[in-house]
Amino acid sequence: MKSLSPVDQLFLWLEKRQQPMHVAGLQLFSFPEDAGPKYVSELAQSIRDYCCPEPPFNQRLTRRFGQYFWTEDKQFDIDHHFRHEALPKPGRIRELLSLVSAEHSNLLDRERPLWEAHLIEGIRGRQFALYTKVHHSVVDGISAMRMGMRALSKDPEERDLPPVWAYKPEKKQRSLPSNPVDAMSSLARLTAGVSKQVATVPALARELYKVGQKAKTDPNYVSIFQAPDTMFNQCITGSRRFAAQSFALPRLRKLAGTFSCTINDLVLSMCGHALREYLISQNALPDQPLIAMVPLSLRKDDSAGGNQIALILANLGTHVCDPANRLRIVQASVKDAKRRFAQMSPEEILNFTALSMTPTGLNLLTGLAPKWRAFNVIISNVPGPREPLYWNGARLRGMYPVSVVLDRIALNITLTSYQDQLEFGLIACRRTLPSMQRLLDYLENSIRELEIAAGFK
Protein backbone atom coordinates (compact mmCIF):
# COMPACT_ATOMS: atom_id res chain seq x y z
CA MET A 1 0.00 0.00 0.00
CA LYS A 2 1.41 3.38 -1.03
CA SER A 3 0.24 6.75 0.22
CA LEU A 4 -0.64 9.52 -2.23
CA SER A 5 1.31 12.76 -2.18
CA PRO A 6 -0.51 15.85 -0.85
CA VAL A 7 -0.81 17.16 -4.42
CA ASP A 8 -2.39 13.92 -5.67
CA GLN A 9 -4.74 13.86 -2.68
CA LEU A 10 -5.77 17.39 -3.57
CA PHE A 11 -7.01 16.30 -7.00
CA LEU A 12 -9.27 13.76 -5.29
CA TRP A 13 -10.58 16.25 -2.74
CA LEU A 14 -11.36 18.76 -5.49
CA GLU A 15 -13.35 16.27 -7.54
CA LYS A 16 -17.12 16.51 -7.48
CA ARG A 17 -19.87 15.68 -9.91
CA GLN A 18 -19.65 19.00 -11.72
CA GLN A 19 -15.84 18.97 -11.62
CA PRO A 20 -14.31 15.67 -12.82
CA MET A 21 -10.55 15.72 -12.39
CA HIS A 22 -9.32 13.50 -15.21
CA VAL A 23 -7.21 14.39 -18.25
CA ALA A 24 -7.44 12.61 -21.60
CA GLY A 25 -6.16 12.40 -25.12
CA LEU A 26 -7.89 11.69 -28.43
CA GLN A 27 -5.73 10.02 -31.08
CA LEU A 28 -6.98 9.70 -34.65
CA PHE A 29 -5.51 6.95 -36.87
CA SER A 30 -5.82 5.91 -40.49
CA PHE A 31 -6.00 2.24 -41.44
CA PRO A 32 -2.88 0.52 -42.79
CA GLU A 33 -3.07 0.07 -46.55
CA ASP A 34 -3.38 -3.70 -46.20
CA ALA A 35 -6.03 -3.58 -43.48
CA GLY A 36 -9.12 -5.70 -43.99
CA PRO A 37 -12.68 -4.92 -42.90
CA LYS A 38 -12.13 -6.55 -39.49
CA TYR A 39 -8.91 -4.70 -38.72
CA VAL A 40 -10.23 -2.73 -35.72
CA SER A 41 -12.08 -5.74 -34.28
CA GLU A 42 -8.93 -7.84 -34.49
CA LEU A 43 -6.92 -5.01 -32.96
CA ALA A 44 -9.41 -4.76 -30.12
CA GLN A 45 -9.13 -8.46 -29.38
CA SER A 46 -5.34 -8.36 -29.33
CA ILE A 47 -5.41 -5.37 -26.96
CA ARG A 48 -7.91 -7.05 -24.65
CA ASP A 49 -5.39 -9.85 -24.14
CA TYR A 50 -3.24 -7.40 -22.15
CA CYS A 51 -5.29 -7.95 -19.02
CA CYS A 52 -2.50 -7.64 -16.43
CA PRO A 53 -1.64 -3.93 -16.35
CA GLU A 54 1.55 -2.42 -15.00
CA PRO A 55 1.66 0.32 -12.34
CA PRO A 56 0.07 2.80 -12.07
CA PHE A 57 -2.70 1.25 -14.18
CA ASN A 58 -3.22 -1.65 -11.76
CA GLN A 59 -3.61 0.58 -8.69
CA ARG A 60 -6.94 1.38 -7.07
CA LEU A 61 -7.77 3.72 -4.23
CA THR A 62 -8.32 2.75 -0.64
CA ARG A 63 -9.05 5.17 2.18
CA ARG A 64 -7.96 4.99 5.80
CA PHE A 65 -8.21 7.64 8.50
CA GLY A 66 -9.32 10.22 5.93
CA GLN A 67 -6.27 9.64 3.71
CA TYR A 68 -6.06 7.95 0.30
CA PHE A 69 -3.64 5.14 -0.54
CA TRP A 70 -2.83 3.16 -3.68
CA THR A 71 -3.22 -0.59 -3.50
CA GLU A 72 -3.05 -3.22 -6.23
CA ASP A 73 -6.40 -4.22 -7.69
CA LYS A 74 -6.59 -7.98 -7.20
CA GLN A 75 -9.83 -8.22 -9.23
CA PHE A 76 -8.83 -6.20 -12.27
CA ASP A 77 -11.42 -6.38 -15.06
CA ILE A 78 -10.08 -5.40 -18.47
CA ASP A 79 -13.61 -5.17 -19.91
CA HIS A 80 -14.41 -2.31 -17.54
CA HIS A 81 -11.36 -0.27 -18.54
CA PHE A 82 -11.04 -1.08 -22.24
CA ARG A 83 -14.10 -0.54 -24.45
CA HIS A 84 -14.54 -1.19 -28.16
CA GLU A 85 -17.20 1.11 -29.61
CA ALA A 86 -18.53 2.29 -32.96
CA LEU A 87 -19.83 5.68 -33.98
CA PRO A 88 -23.39 6.02 -35.21
CA LYS A 89 -23.76 6.81 -38.89
CA PRO A 90 -22.70 8.88 -40.73
CA GLY A 91 -19.49 8.57 -38.68
CA ARG A 92 -18.29 12.14 -39.05
CA ILE A 93 -15.80 13.89 -36.80
CA ARG A 94 -18.84 15.62 -35.32
CA GLU A 95 -20.11 12.30 -33.97
CA LEU A 96 -16.64 11.47 -32.66
CA LEU A 97 -16.39 14.74 -30.73
CA SER A 98 -19.89 14.22 -29.34
CA LEU A 99 -18.86 10.80 -28.03
CA VAL A 100 -15.72 12.23 -26.41
CA SER A 101 -17.76 15.06 -24.89
CA ALA A 102 -20.13 12.57 -23.27
CA GLU A 103 -17.37 10.27 -22.03
CA HIS A 104 -15.34 13.15 -20.62
CA SER A 105 -18.37 14.22 -18.59
CA ASN A 106 -18.43 10.92 -16.69
CA LEU A 107 -16.58 10.41 -13.43
CA LEU A 108 -14.14 7.53 -13.17
CA ASP A 109 -15.09 4.72 -10.78
CA ARG A 110 -13.03 5.08 -7.59
CA GLU A 111 -13.57 1.41 -6.77
CA ARG A 112 -11.33 0.52 -9.73
CA PRO A 113 -8.07 1.81 -11.23
CA LEU A 114 -8.71 5.35 -12.39
CA TRP A 115 -8.46 5.07 -16.18
CA GLU A 116 -10.38 4.06 -19.29
CA ALA A 117 -9.46 3.50 -22.94
CA HIS A 118 -12.05 3.61 -25.76
CA LEU A 119 -11.22 2.17 -29.18
CA ILE A 120 -13.66 3.79 -31.60
CA GLU A 121 -14.38 2.63 -35.15
CA GLY A 122 -16.97 3.61 -37.76
CA ILE A 123 -15.25 6.88 -38.66
CA ARG A 124 -15.44 8.01 -42.27
CA GLY A 125 -12.41 7.66 -44.50
CA ARG A 126 -11.02 4.36 -43.11
CA GLN A 127 -10.14 5.89 -39.78
CA PHE A 128 -10.47 4.92 -36.12
CA ALA A 129 -9.72 6.67 -32.84
CA LEU A 130 -8.44 5.97 -29.36
CA TYR A 131 -9.75 8.08 -26.47
CA THR A 132 -7.88 7.49 -23.20
CA LYS A 133 -8.62 9.22 -19.91
CA VAL A 134 -6.68 9.02 -16.66
CA HIS A 135 -7.33 10.70 -13.33
CA HIS A 136 -5.13 13.69 -12.54
CA SER A 137 -4.12 12.03 -9.26
CA VAL A 138 -2.40 9.32 -11.35
CA VAL A 139 -0.62 11.48 -13.95
CA ASP A 140 -0.43 15.10 -15.00
CA GLY A 141 -1.13 16.20 -18.56
CA ILE A 142 2.46 16.16 -19.76
CA SER A 143 3.14 12.75 -18.22
CA ALA A 144 -0.02 11.40 -19.85
CA MET A 145 1.16 12.58 -23.26
CA ARG A 146 4.56 10.97 -22.74
CA MET A 147 2.90 7.70 -21.79
CA GLY A 148 0.76 7.83 -24.90
CA MET A 149 3.80 8.41 -27.11
CA ARG A 150 5.58 5.39 -25.60
CA ALA A 151 2.87 3.14 -26.98
CA LEU A 152 3.54 4.31 -30.55
CA SER A 153 6.33 3.51 -32.99
CA LYS A 154 8.23 5.31 -35.73
CA ASP A 155 8.19 2.06 -37.75
CA PRO A 156 5.01 1.48 -39.82
CA GLU A 157 5.86 -2.22 -40.08
CA GLU A 158 6.02 -2.84 -36.33
CA ARG A 159 3.14 -4.90 -35.00
CA ASP A 160 2.07 -6.45 -31.68
CA LEU A 161 2.66 -3.20 -29.82
CA PRO A 162 1.21 -3.39 -26.31
CA PRO A 163 -1.24 -0.72 -25.12
CA VAL A 164 -0.07 2.01 -22.78
CA TRP A 165 -1.18 0.19 -19.63
CA ALA A 166 1.08 -2.79 -20.39
CA TYR A 167 4.38 -0.86 -20.44
CA LYS A 168 6.78 -1.00 -17.52
CA PRO A 169 6.56 2.28 -15.60
CA GLU A 170 9.21 4.94 -15.85
CA LYS A 171 10.27 7.11 -12.94
CA LYS A 172 7.47 9.58 -12.29
CA GLN A 173 8.33 13.19 -13.07
CA ARG A 174 5.82 15.91 -12.40
CA SER A 175 6.11 19.15 -14.24
CA LEU A 176 5.74 22.48 -12.53
CA PRO A 177 2.12 23.65 -12.23
CA SER A 178 0.03 23.88 -15.37
CA ASN A 179 -3.17 24.98 -13.63
CA PRO A 180 -4.17 26.85 -10.45
CA VAL A 181 -4.56 23.65 -8.46
CA ASP A 182 -0.96 22.68 -9.20
CA ALA A 183 0.03 26.21 -8.23
CA MET A 184 -1.47 25.66 -4.78
CA SER A 185 0.91 22.76 -4.30
CA SER A 186 3.77 25.08 -5.14
CA LEU A 187 2.79 27.23 -2.18
CA ALA A 188 3.34 24.25 0.09
CA ARG A 189 6.95 24.23 -1.03
CA LEU A 190 7.35 27.66 0.51
CA THR A 191 7.65 25.89 3.85
CA ALA A 192 10.55 23.75 2.66
CA GLY A 193 14.08 25.16 2.84
CA VAL A 194 12.89 28.06 4.99
CA SER A 195 16.10 30.07 4.91
CA LYS A 196 16.31 29.98 1.11
CA GLN A 197 12.64 30.90 0.79
CA VAL A 198 12.84 33.78 3.27
CA ALA A 199 15.70 35.24 1.27
CA THR A 200 13.33 35.74 -1.68
CA VAL A 201 10.86 37.90 0.26
CA PRO A 202 12.48 41.34 -0.37
CA ALA A 203 12.76 40.74 -4.12
CA LEU A 204 9.20 39.44 -4.34
CA ALA A 205 7.84 42.37 -2.36
CA ARG A 206 9.61 44.84 -4.67
CA GLU A 207 8.36 43.02 -7.77
CA LEU A 208 4.76 42.83 -6.59
CA TYR A 209 4.87 46.55 -5.76
CA LYS A 210 6.26 47.41 -9.22
CA VAL A 211 3.57 45.29 -10.89
CA GLY A 212 0.83 47.08 -8.98
CA GLN A 213 2.24 50.54 -9.74
CA LYS A 214 2.74 49.92 -13.45
CA ALA A 215 -0.80 48.53 -13.79
CA LYS A 216 -2.12 51.89 -12.58
CA THR A 217 -0.52 53.76 -15.48
CA ASP A 218 -0.59 51.17 -18.28
CA PRO A 219 -4.05 49.72 -19.07
CA ASN A 220 -2.49 46.84 -21.04
CA TYR A 221 -0.16 45.78 -18.23
CA VAL A 222 -1.26 42.62 -16.41
CA SER A 223 -1.35 42.52 -12.63
CA ILE A 224 -3.00 40.15 -10.19
CA PHE A 225 -6.82 40.31 -9.92
CA GLN A 226 -7.50 42.51 -12.94
CA ALA A 227 -9.25 39.77 -14.95
CA PRO A 228 -12.82 40.94 -15.73
CA ASP A 229 -16.01 39.09 -14.86
CA THR A 230 -17.06 37.01 -17.88
CA MET A 231 -19.36 34.13 -18.73
CA PHE A 232 -16.26 31.89 -18.63
CA ASN A 233 -16.07 32.50 -14.88
CA GLN A 234 -19.41 31.17 -13.69
CA CYS A 235 -20.22 28.04 -11.72
CA ILE A 236 -20.05 24.96 -13.93
CA THR A 237 -22.05 21.77 -14.33
CA GLY A 238 -20.77 18.25 -14.97
CA SER A 239 -21.64 18.32 -18.69
CA ARG A 240 -18.77 18.84 -21.14
CA ARG A 241 -18.35 19.80 -24.76
CA PHE A 242 -15.13 19.00 -26.60
CA ALA A 243 -14.00 20.60 -29.84
CA ALA A 244 -10.78 19.92 -31.76
CA GLN A 245 -9.05 21.08 -34.91
CA SER A 246 -5.65 21.03 -36.60
CA PHE A 247 -3.89 24.05 -38.07
CA ALA A 248 -0.89 23.97 -40.42
CA LEU A 249 2.32 24.98 -38.65
CA PRO A 250 4.03 26.32 -41.82
CA ARG A 251 1.16 28.76 -42.22
CA LEU A 252 1.59 29.97 -38.62
CA ARG A 253 5.40 30.10 -38.87
CA LYS A 254 5.09 32.40 -41.88
CA LEU A 255 2.89 34.77 -39.90
CA ALA A 256 5.16 34.61 -36.86
CA GLY A 257 8.15 35.53 -39.03
CA THR A 258 6.31 38.45 -40.60
CA PHE A 259 5.26 39.89 -37.24
CA SER A 260 8.58 39.00 -35.52
CA CYS A 261 6.83 37.06 -32.79
CA THR A 262 6.85 33.51 -31.45
CA ILE A 263 4.35 30.79 -32.29
CA ASN A 264 3.11 31.04 -28.69
CA ASP A 265 2.48 34.79 -29.12
CA LEU A 266 0.57 34.04 -32.31
CA VAL A 267 -1.50 31.31 -30.63
CA LEU A 268 -2.45 33.62 -27.76
CA SER A 269 -3.48 36.29 -30.25
CA MET A 270 -5.57 33.73 -32.16
CA CYS A 271 -7.28 32.73 -28.91
CA GLY A 272 -7.86 36.37 -28.04
CA HIS A 273 -9.62 36.92 -31.37
CA ALA A 274 -11.70 33.74 -30.98
CA LEU A 275 -12.77 34.59 -27.44
CA ARG A 276 -13.63 38.16 -28.45
CA GLU A 277 -15.82 37.00 -31.34
CA TYR A 278 -17.50 34.35 -29.19
CA LEU A 279 -18.32 36.85 -26.44
CA ILE A 280 -19.65 39.32 -29.01
CA SER A 281 -21.94 36.59 -30.36
CA GLN A 282 -23.24 36.10 -26.82
CA ASN A 283 -23.54 39.87 -26.16
CA ALA A 284 -21.12 39.40 -23.30
CA LEU A 285 -17.82 41.09 -24.23
CA PRO A 286 -16.39 43.07 -21.27
CA ASP A 287 -14.60 46.39 -21.74
CA GLN A 288 -11.48 45.08 -20.03
CA PRO A 289 -9.20 42.56 -21.79
CA LEU A 290 -9.42 38.88 -20.90
CA ILE A 291 -6.41 37.42 -19.08
CA ALA A 292 -5.03 33.94 -19.80
CA MET A 293 -2.98 31.75 -17.48
CA VAL A 294 -0.16 30.31 -19.61
CA PRO A 295 2.61 27.86 -18.64
CA LEU A 296 5.85 29.33 -20.00
CA SER A 297 9.16 27.57 -20.59
CA LEU A 298 12.17 29.48 -19.24
CA ARG A 299 14.77 27.06 -20.61
CA LYS A 300 17.63 28.83 -22.36
CA ASP A 301 19.54 25.75 -23.56
CA ASP A 302 18.93 22.34 -25.12
CA SER A 303 18.97 20.46 -21.83
CA ALA A 304 16.14 18.09 -21.02
CA GLY A 305 16.44 17.55 -17.28
CA GLY A 306 14.80 19.50 -14.50
CA ASN A 307 11.90 21.92 -14.49
CA GLN A 308 12.25 25.40 -15.94
CA ILE A 309 8.63 26.38 -16.24
CA ALA A 310 6.63 29.27 -14.78
CA LEU A 311 3.04 30.42 -15.04
CA ILE A 312 2.39 33.83 -16.54
CA LEU A 313 -0.70 35.98 -16.90
CA ALA A 314 -1.06 37.15 -20.51
CA ASN A 315 -3.22 39.98 -21.83
CA LEU A 316 -5.27 38.54 -24.73
CA GLY A 317 -6.15 41.95 -26.21
CA THR A 318 -9.86 41.17 -26.47
CA HIS A 319 -10.66 44.87 -25.98
CA VAL A 320 -9.18 45.83 -29.37
CA CYS A 321 -10.55 45.02 -32.82
CA ASP A 322 -7.42 45.29 -34.97
CA PRO A 323 -5.62 41.89 -35.19
CA ALA A 324 -2.13 43.39 -35.54
CA ASN A 325 -2.62 45.63 -32.50
CA ARG A 326 -3.93 42.66 -30.53
CA LEU A 327 -0.83 40.65 -31.41
CA ARG A 328 1.39 43.53 -30.27
CA ILE A 329 -0.44 43.70 -26.94
CA VAL A 330 -0.08 39.95 -26.43
CA GLN A 331 3.59 40.03 -27.38
CA ALA A 332 4.33 42.92 -25.02
CA SER A 333 2.51 41.16 -22.19
CA VAL A 334 4.51 37.96 -22.62
CA LYS A 335 7.78 39.89 -22.94
CA ASP A 336 7.05 41.71 -19.67
CA ALA A 337 6.60 38.38 -17.91
CA LYS A 338 9.78 36.93 -19.43
CA ARG A 339 11.73 40.08 -18.49
CA ARG A 340 10.46 39.85 -14.92
CA PHE A 341 11.47 36.21 -14.54
CA ALA A 342 14.85 36.80 -16.17
CA GLN A 343 15.76 38.93 -13.16
CA MET A 344 14.70 36.30 -10.62
CA SER A 345 16.31 33.23 -9.15
CA PRO A 346 14.58 29.83 -9.58
CA GLU A 347 13.28 30.12 -5.97
CA GLU A 348 11.91 33.59 -6.63
CA ILE A 349 10.19 32.43 -9.83
CA LEU A 350 8.56 29.52 -8.02
CA ASN A 351 7.39 31.66 -5.13
CA PHE A 352 6.18 34.53 -7.33
CA THR A 353 4.16 32.04 -9.38
CA ALA A 354 2.71 30.45 -6.25
CA LEU A 355 1.77 33.80 -4.69
CA SER A 356 0.18 34.97 -7.95
CA MET A 357 -1.93 31.85 -8.43
CA THR A 358 -2.69 30.67 -4.92
CA PRO A 359 -5.68 32.99 -4.24
CA THR A 360 -7.38 31.55 -7.33
CA GLY A 361 -6.57 28.03 -6.15
CA LEU A 362 -7.84 28.71 -2.64
CA ASN A 363 -11.05 30.05 -4.12
CA LEU A 364 -11.47 26.74 -5.95
CA LEU A 365 -11.37 24.98 -2.60
CA THR A 366 -13.58 27.38 -0.65
CA GLY A 367 -15.60 29.39 -3.18
CA LEU A 368 -15.62 32.25 -0.68
CA ALA A 369 -14.14 34.98 -2.89
CA PRO A 370 -15.31 34.53 -6.51
CA LYS A 371 -14.12 38.04 -7.43
CA TRP A 372 -10.52 37.09 -6.60
CA ARG A 373 -9.81 36.36 -10.21
CA ALA A 374 -6.29 36.34 -11.62
CA PHE A 375 -7.31 35.02 -15.06
CA ASN A 376 -10.31 34.05 -17.19
CA VAL A 377 -9.08 31.08 -19.19
CA ILE A 378 -6.27 28.51 -19.27
CA ILE A 379 -4.22 28.22 -22.47
CA SER A 380 -1.50 25.58 -22.50
CA ASN A 381 0.87 24.49 -25.28
CA VAL A 382 2.62 21.12 -24.89
CA PRO A 383 5.32 20.27 -27.46
CA GLY A 384 4.69 17.00 -29.31
CA PRO A 385 6.55 14.68 -31.69
CA ARG A 386 7.88 15.96 -35.00
CA GLU A 387 8.05 12.64 -36.86
CA PRO A 388 5.11 10.47 -38.02
CA LEU A 389 4.09 7.78 -35.53
CA TYR A 390 2.26 4.47 -35.94
CA TRP A 391 0.28 2.07 -33.79
CA ASN A 392 0.33 -1.50 -35.08
CA GLY A 393 0.68 -0.24 -38.64
CA ALA A 394 -1.97 2.48 -38.36
CA ARG A 395 -0.63 5.99 -38.92
CA LEU A 396 -1.36 8.63 -36.29
CA ARG A 397 -3.13 11.48 -38.11
CA GLY A 398 -3.95 13.74 -35.19
CA MET A 399 -3.65 13.92 -31.42
CA TYR A 400 -5.84 16.23 -29.38
CA PRO A 401 -5.50 16.93 -25.64
CA VAL A 402 -8.65 16.89 -23.50
CA SER A 403 -8.00 18.72 -20.25
CA VAL A 404 -9.81 19.69 -17.04
CA VAL A 405 -12.51 22.32 -16.58
CA LEU A 406 -12.63 23.94 -13.15
CA ASP A 407 -15.37 25.78 -11.30
CA ARG A 408 -15.44 29.41 -12.47
CA ILE A 409 -12.87 28.56 -15.17
CA ALA A 410 -15.29 27.03 -17.65
CA LEU A 411 -12.94 26.85 -20.65
CA ASN A 412 -9.57 25.18 -21.09
CA ILE A 413 -7.63 25.45 -24.37
CA THR A 414 -4.77 22.97 -24.67
CA LEU A 415 -2.75 22.40 -27.80
CA THR A 416 0.13 20.28 -28.91
CA SER A 417 2.27 19.98 -32.00
CA TYR A 418 2.52 16.92 -34.22
CA GLN A 419 4.66 16.91 -37.37
CA ASP A 420 3.61 20.09 -39.22
CA GLN A 421 0.34 20.51 -37.37
CA LEU A 422 -0.79 22.39 -34.30
CA GLU A 423 -3.56 20.37 -32.64
CA PHE A 424 -6.10 22.35 -30.60
CA GLY A 425 -8.26 20.66 -27.97
CA LEU A 426 -10.95 22.83 -26.38
CA ILE A 427 -12.96 21.56 -23.41
CA ALA A 428 -15.73 23.54 -21.72
CA CYS A 429 -18.81 23.28 -19.56
CA ARG A 430 -21.57 22.59 -22.07
CA ARG A 431 -24.25 24.57 -20.23
CA THR A 432 -22.09 27.55 -19.25
CA LEU A 433 -20.72 28.07 -22.78
CA PRO A 434 -23.40 27.29 -25.39
CA SER A 435 -22.23 26.60 -28.96
CA MET A 436 -18.61 26.59 -27.81
CA GLN A 437 -17.57 24.74 -30.97
CA ARG A 438 -17.88 28.05 -32.85
CA LEU A 439 -14.53 28.94 -31.34
CA LEU A 440 -12.93 26.70 -33.97
CA ASP A 441 -14.33 28.87 -36.77
CA TYR A 442 -13.20 31.99 -34.93
CA LEU A 443 -9.67 30.56 -34.61
CA GLU A 444 -9.55 30.02 -38.38
CA ASN A 445 -10.90 33.54 -38.95
CA SER A 446 -8.17 34.93 -36.70
CA ILE A 447 -5.49 33.45 -38.96
CA ARG A 448 -7.15 34.91 -42.05
CA GLU A 449 -7.33 38.36 -40.48
CA LEU A 450 -3.65 38.24 -39.54
CA GLU A 451 -2.80 37.12 -43.08
CA ILE A 452 -4.71 40.12 -44.44
CA ALA A 453 -2.94 42.42 -41.98
CA ALA A 454 0.40 40.94 -43.10
CA GLY A 455 -0.44 41.60 -46.76
CA PHE A 456 -0.65 37.93 -47.75
CA LYS A 457 -4.15 38.32 -49.19
UniProtKB/TrEMBL annotation:
From the UniProt record, give the pathway where this protein acts: Lipid metabolism; Glycerolipid metabolism; triacylglycerol biosynthesis
O-acyltransferase WSD1-like N-terminal domain location is 4-267
Q: Which stretches are annotated as coiled coil?
A: none
Q: What does the record give as EC number? A: 2.3.1.20
Catalytic reactions of this protein: an acyl-CoA + a 1,2-diacyl-sn-glycerol = a triacyl-sn-glycerol + CoA
What the entry lists under Pfam families is as follows: WS_DGAT_C, WS_DGAT_cat
Q: Please give the InterPro entries that the UniProt record associates with this protein.
A: Acyl_transf_WS/DGAT, O-acyltransferase_WSD1-like, O-acyltransferase_WSD1_C, O-acyltransferase_WSD1_N
Instruction: Name the Gene Ontology molecular function terms of this record.
Output: acyltransferase activity
Q: Which UniProt keywords apply?
A: Acyltransferase, Glycerol metabolism, Lipid biosynthesis, Lipid metabolism, Transferase
Q: Where are the transmembrane segments?
A: none
Enzyme class, one word? transferase
The O-acyltransferase WSD1 C-terminal domain covers 306-450
Which PANTHER family does the record match to this protein?
O-ACYLTRANSFERASE (WSD1-LIKE) FAMILY PROTEIN, WAX ESTER SYNTHASE_DIACYLGLYCEROL ACYLTRANSFERASE 4-RELATED
The family classification in the record reads:
Belongs to the long-chain O-acyltransferase family.
Cross-referenced NCBIfam families: acyl_WS_DGAT
Q: What is this protein called?
A: diacylglycerol O-acyltransferase
Q: Which organism is it from?
A: Alloalcanivorax balearicus MACL04
Q: What is the lineage of its organism?
A: Bacteria, Pseudomonadati, Pseudomonadota, Gammaproteobacteria, Oceanospirillales
